[in-house]
Design goal:
Helices cover about 60% and strands about 5% of the residues. The protein is an all-alpha fold and about 150 residues long. A two-stranded antiparallel sheet has the order 1-2. Helix 1 runs parallel beside helix 6, helix 3 (about 40-55) packs parallel to helix 5 and helix 3 runs antiparallel to helix 6 (about 125-150). The chain is globular.
Length: about 150
């Protein structure tokens, strides 16, 4: 699991370096042909990791229900993110993964509700969820790189 967590940290470091390089207007801009923006994609990866690992394990997530509703799968930006939200998302990028590493070390993930992903891969435990999460984050990192060309 160490390599999986390090890969997640690498992804999150890349994302954390993107945020300060764009204005609030740029983070919120939805380019033509896209259904979301930079800040939505970045917040979305945080939410999905929490839902997959903690939610499916029956444990409380380290983020608010409001954030889950705003950035979960199937959602889209309904209003612009504020600078306060961007700052909060920036902090969560690494703190949520640091906490996940602590929780894995403390072996808190005892139960797991199997979940068939949209790709056809079934998650059977928290380790599967973290591995799949890296795949998911990679997809969104690609979308983020694409969106950056249009803002």
């Amino acid at each position: 699991m160490n390599a999986t967590l390090e890969l997640t940290r690498t992804s999150r470091l890349i994302l954390s370096q993107i945020l300060p390089n764009y204005t609030l207007a740029q983070l919120n801009k939805i380019p033509p042909g896209y259904s979301n923006n930079l800040i939505w994609n970045i917040a979305h990866v945080i939410v999905v990791q929490q839902m997959l690992v903690y939610g499916l394990s029956g444990l409380p997530m380290k983020i608010s229900n409001e954030m889950v509703e705003k950035y979960k799968k199937g959602s889209k930006p309904e209003q612009d993110a504020t600078q306060e939200e961007v700052d909060y998302i920036q902090r969560l990028l690494l703190t949520t993964i640091d906490q996940t590493a602590i929780d894995i070390e403390n072996d808190i993930f005892k139960t797991f509700k199997e979940y068939p992903t949209s790709t056809g891969f079934t998650l059977k435990n928290a380790q599967d969820a973290m591995s799949f999460n890296n795949f998911h984050e990679g997809i969104h990192l690609g979308v983020i790189f694409s969106i950056r060309k249009f803002i």
